[in-house]
Write a structure and sequence with these properties.
15 helices; 397 residues; alpha/beta; binds magnesium ion; Rossmann fold; binds adenosine-5'-diphosphate; six-stranded parallel sheet; single chain; 17 strands
Length: 397
Amino acid sequence: MSWKSLDDMDVAGNRVLVRVDINVPVENGHVTDATRIERIVPTVADILAKGGKPMLLAHFGRPKGKVTPEMSLAQILPALEAALGRKVQLLETLEAAEALNADAWEADVLLLENIRFYPGEEANDIAFARRLAALGDVYCNDAFSAAHRAHASTEALARLLPACAGRLMQAELSALEAALSNPERPVGAVVGGAKVSTKIELLENLVNRLDVLVIGGGMANTFLAALGANLGKSLQEPDFFGTAKDIMAQADKAGCRVILPVDGMVATEFAPGADHVVVPLGAGTVLDPDQMVLDAGPASIEAVRLAFEGLKTLIWNGPLGAFEIAPFDTATVAAARAAATQTRDGTLISVAGGGDTVAALNQAGVADDFTYISTAGGAFLEWMEGKTLPGVAALEG
Ligand code: ADP
Ligand code: MG
């Protein structure tokens, strides 16, 4: 934890290059979800309050190093100005930014056009980074969600100027450090979702760091099937039975208790309100060929609740069932509410992340009760896999 925050920087009167993630969904030229834009407001407001001059660096879409008008940040500008309550000036080219006299900025906030219009960005090109560095006095990275990429505006630039984390990055790093680097023990995790194959590195890292691992969702089917269960047409990955067994062996060696479902909600079709039965699950389970496990059952939910009660820290990635369709959201919602209650009571630090996980926690109505919910996607996952994120490493100098 050796990165600096805005509090450590000389901001007054200085030009601050702020890497932000405002890669928001846009339909017909309108921003449909401004969450990412709203989350950078504290950093920009803080820089302005300290007397600094923010110039925002951001990407939008995947223009692959070419000027692509459909991916212009111009379409984000109105939403950005609304969120900041300030005028924002778009600098359409790097040359325009270079020609700008720092004393003559027209707006409070400047925004450089889509940084990925330049091939130097994704190449992490040092000459390109030097051109960016010349535009500012201080570098502030507030885009944790882009920190798993070594790009010029996230990596090389951080090494050329006095560098710090913005408020959002700071909150994210603090939460992730509290969850994984130096957690209050006992520490546990829920890892669920569809497939083992997308989460092997996550599982391998976690079993070596945790006291308890709850495995759920389609992924749990693969673990149960690896132990010998015949789960009909349940989502499962026979190619990863060996991986599942390895992970259980590693957990055993590392002293991490693995909790698999002991019962499941079984149906023959995945449809709203589909007929379903609760079936005990274990190594000897044999389902009909047309049956599938779509959620954990009540005994499993109770076991998860009990496991949570012993924890001081909880990491969550992946739903416990096919939560998009009721009633197969039951286990995910019940477990999410249990974690939320303990967090509200002040006995649990709870950190969650993952696209579907965030959607599921919103659906359970508990998103505000968790200690921290990461919307960083890939960067969150890589952190939980124990990987070094280039954008964070560069801040640590
Ligand atoms: P995240 O995006 O949070 O990392 P994943 O993408 O790994 O989560 O997994 C989410 C998906 O897993 C959801 O679409 C959900 O329907 C699916 N899923 C969970 N449990 C099951 C199950 N038992 N059978 C089929 N799909 C499942
Ligand atoms: Mg997903």
